[in-house]
Amino acid sequence: MTKNKKRFTGLLLTAAFALTLSACGGSGYTTTNEAAATESSSSSSGSGTAVIGIVNPPTTLNPINPNDTASTQAISIMNDSLMVVNDKLEFEPRLAESIETEDNQTFTVHLQDKAVWNDGTDFTSKDVEYTLGMIAAPAVTTNINLSFIEGLNDSGKLDEGQAAISGFAAVDDKTFTIKTKYPVEITYFNDNFSGKVRFLPQHVLKDTAPADLDTSPYMQNPTVSIGQFSFVKFAKDQYVQYKANESYYLGAPKLAELYVKILTAPNMVAQLQTGEVDANMDRTGLIPVEDFEKVSNMTNVTSSFSPISTPVSVMFNVQKMTDPKVRQALEMAVNRPQIVDKLLKGNGEIVDNMLPSTHPFYDSSVEPYAYDPDAAKKLLQEAGWDFSQVIHFSIPVGNKVREQASELVAADWKAIGLQVEIQKFDFPTLLQKLVSNDYEVGVVTIPYTADPSSVFNYFTPSSAMNFTGIDDPELTGLIEQGAKETDTAARKEAYNQVQQYFHENVPQFAMYVDNLMSAQSNSLKGKVGPDMLNNVYLWEKTE
Question: What is the pTM (predicted TM-score) of this model?
């Protein structure tokens, strides 16, 4: 577990899940390891097959460039990170046996002695060095930004002429150090590095040029991995198939096979009832609100609600929607209580911006704008808004509640005289529009993480995922101040100011926060919910 000789001992720091952007739809691709696909799973010491239902399909299996939550989840089944987060919001060791620091700037990571790739090759500091080198290579596409590590620029890349990351040092095969540019709280380090980075096999890819990594055969058939299960097949819009990793360093899985099955939400609910699906995936296997009662009454299924949830955001391209008063007015015009009470049937909450009320850095003193259509219309008039101007509202398909909520938002805007055109996109298309700032107003979910800097960094000019296009030195300075503080109280004050900035300038606002239902077949022994993928190697199926 994480250790800090300055009294950071055990699992003492709260954390939430280090996840990437939550997909709201999209399409996968087909890639198959034919040899693995035809190999009999009877070679596994485990037995039985478990099926996890998912609504949002993965878009990639690239460990260092997962574009969405579904992809991150699919990758995490077959590739471990150094640390994981449990449902008590605590870090637990995975590939790292321990992490320690004396000055909050140089972190020593001790790898698990028994950690091996599924082909039997030792997992060592060389794999870490290779992976970080690829992430830092300018020619490699990745959404992981490690700019806080010494030797990397603000984009998390090596400058021209640099060949190695000065902040990385291998002590031996199972020990390495990371030096940051400035002291950081250990939660920041774990959230931005230990729980985020998944690794590439150096012995497989060492001859691959950075420019060729994205299109390498490995990215289509990642058969060498270091997780609980090994990749077998990815069938577009159908499933991802895995087999037990007999070499798993924490013990061979008790299951022989695992499937992540891609379904529509109604079909997933139906297959929970028939037993064809054993559990729904947290966040990306959403059970529709209208089916909550049906699922809770199933005799073959046990259901519960997750204590952790994520705001669904309305994002503004501030380069096109330039006036904060206009953005404030658009927030005030939305009847969010109606969304929570009627659409979510009370299973949700209203917050002001990027953090839900369960987050330890949530500032409860910042109250969301109340629903006031008259005040909103007046504010628009004061701002000189042209009511004949059309607002193009880009929303993702795939999550019916999110679509319906977005349509209610558009209706509220029309009710005060605004012209609104809804544009629906699959997630990969919408993501590209958000990244390139080719939109006016959009809907997206950015899951909050243990460290608030991870989510607020989306609103800095150096971020490749700066969807709003915002470039305000005041905001950037506050976010950087929060990242560099090592005192928790001082960090909280900095992030309180960030939340106040969001309230006043409204680069985005939270449409709603919904409570998510988890369902589990009674024939499946194992934990489901927010941290369900941490311990799938311990799952068992009974008849």
Answer: 0.79
Nearest to 70 by CA among 111, 41, 29: 29
What's the one-letter identity of residue 125?
S
For 35, half-sphere exposure in the C-beta direction (CA atoms, 13 angstrom radius) is 5
In the numeric block, the tokens 């009320």 are attached to 357
CB 248 within 8 A of CB 116: no
d(CA 130, CA 110): 17
Kindly state the average pLDDT of the residues 291-315. Answer: 91
**Low-confidence winner among 382-396, 437-451, 515-529 (lowest mean pLDDT):** 437-451
Cα(301)–Cα(254) distance, integer angstroms: 21
Q: Is the dihedral of CA 272, 276, 281, 284 positive or negative?
A: negative
Determine the pLDDT at residue 446.
85
Q: Is the dihedral of CA 171, 174, 175, 180 positive or negative?
A: positive
Model confidence over 374-418: pLDDT tens digits?
Answer: 999 999 999 999 999 999 999 998 778 899 999 999 999 999 999
- Tell me if residue 28 falls in helix, strand or coil: coil
* 119 and 183 Cβ atoms separated by less than 8 Å: no
Which has the closest alpha carbon to 434: 394, 486, 384, 491? 394
